[in-house]
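Project outcomes to date are best conveyed with an example. Our students and postdoctoral researchers have been running inverse folding experiments weekly, and each run begins with a structure described purely in tokens. The record below, which covers 113 residues, was selected by the lab manager from last quarter's runs and is presented without edits.
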């Protein structure tokens, strides 16, 4: 049985639609998404990446985390849930670079072939 590729997308989809499709593929880059969790990972603009995870805790309260990464000439900076930007280094920087590279390879292969 041959592997069937998804339909090639054209300009008729909105920017939000494309982000949603990309995120659907990328959500598993960090491992399986646990039941009851929502995970998003996508490139929002030229130099901005977003990682979001939301879930309901054991007492029924929604827990959320949003991390915004900005790639600047002086390095990669992250902001967690609207707090102050901090420059990332070491393993965290390596992990971000690997995730971004994997994301681009994945969506190019699955959506923009």
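After processing, the design step wrote out the following sequence:
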């Amino acid at each position: 049985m041959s592997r069937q590729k998804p339909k090639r997308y054209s300009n008729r989809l909105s920017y939000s639609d494309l982000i949603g499709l990309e995120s659907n593929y990328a959500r598993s880059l960090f491992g399986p998404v646990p039941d009851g969790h929502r995970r998003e990972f996508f490139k929002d603009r030229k130099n901005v990446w977003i990682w979001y995870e939301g879930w309901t805790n054991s007492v029924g309260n929604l827990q959320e985390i949003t991390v915004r990464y900005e790639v600047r000439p002086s390095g990669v900076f992250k902001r967690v849930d609207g707090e102050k930007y901090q420059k990332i280094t070491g393993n965290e920087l390596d992990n971000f670079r690997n995730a971004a590279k994997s994301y681009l390879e994945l969506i190019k292969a699955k959506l923009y072939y």
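The two ends are 20 Å apart (CA to CA). The longest helix spans residues 90-110. The training component of this project remains on track.
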